[in-house]
Write a structure and sequence with these properties.
elongated; two-stranded antiparallel sheet
């Protein structure tokens, strides 16, 4: 864990979806309560900016020191839902603000809060992926927080978070918000290991079949493990990662794939 005294300065941009689809109790109202919790835990010299998007993106709070908590909280309290979702424009504006207040050797992160309903602007996952990847190289990372039980687009959330060297989390209660944004704030904000790769090799004399459980969106090709230009997973402070494999022992009779004809040596 990164101890509070050792935590670097944070430059955070809250990118908040205020489209009409967020007008439900477990969406924008919960989001506002959640971000109030986060602001209360920031250090005085941390910086917060707020960008909203709904039809058109707009900056509702220019970079402001966390010492001015009341100003930040007032901006959050004044958020109102309405309009369709111009996600691409909002993301571009958020990165622009993050660059304006960039902290060298600090935490520079866009924190996107949405129900995932990107229905106006750049809606293709691949286009969003390319945009986020380009911005990631500047040192500004992205975390995504999904709110509400309605039309949450989990695939898009995971895609843009992974390509932004960040994490995606789902928040549906204030208790979960406190866990993600307060109790686990260190792991959410502070990256301690970048581009982590796990490679496992099984002895074919002992294991006939195996498969990795989960991590479908993180799969790498064999040659990628020796290529540092290929992006991999990041680990936040206090986090641990476990890789679970399902295996079929050799000769157990539980094989689901017939032996390959040319994979056997016969005399």
């Amino acid at each position: 864990d990164v101890k509070p005294a050792e935590q670097p300065r944070a430059n955070l941009v809250f990118l908040i979806d205020v489209s009409g689809s967020m007008d439900e109790p477990d969406k924008l109202p919960l989001l506002k309560s959640a971000f109030r919790l986060l602001v209360s835990k920031l250090k005085p010299d941390d910086t917060v900016s707020i960008v909203t998007y709904a039809g058109n993106a707009g900056t509702v709070l220019m970079p402001t020191k966390a010492a001015e908590k009341q100003k930040i909280l007032a901006a959050i309290d004044n958020l109102e839902p309405g309009g369709s979702t111009a996600g691409e424009e909002g993301i571009r504006e958020a990165y622009k603000l993050a660059q304006q207040s960039f902290v060298k050797d600090g935490v520079n992160r866009v924190m996107l809060a949405t129900d995932g309903d990107f229905n106006v602007g750049q809606t293709d996952d691949d286009d969003l992926k390319q945009l986020i990847e380009k911005e990631r190289k500047t040192g500004v990372f992205l975390s995504v927080f999904g709110f509400g039980r309605g039309n949450l687009n989990d695939q898009m959330m995971q895609t843009i978070a992974q390509n932004g060297n960040g994490t995606a989390a789902y928040i549906d209660t204030l208790a979960e918000a406190e866990k993600v944004l307060v109790e686990d704030a260190s792991s959410t904000l502070f990256t301690i290991a970048k581009d982590v790769k796990i490679q496992v090799e099984f002895n074919p004399a002992k294991v006939s079949e195996y498969r990795l459980v989960g991590y479908e969106t993180r799969a790498l090709n064999r040659e990628d493990f020796n290529n540092d230009r290929v992006d991999a997973g990041d680990i936040g402070s206090g986090h641990s990662v476990t890789a679970v494999y399902e295996i079929t022992p050799k000769g157990s009779g539980g094989e689901q794939v017939d032996p390959l004809r040319y994979g056997q040596t016969k005399v």
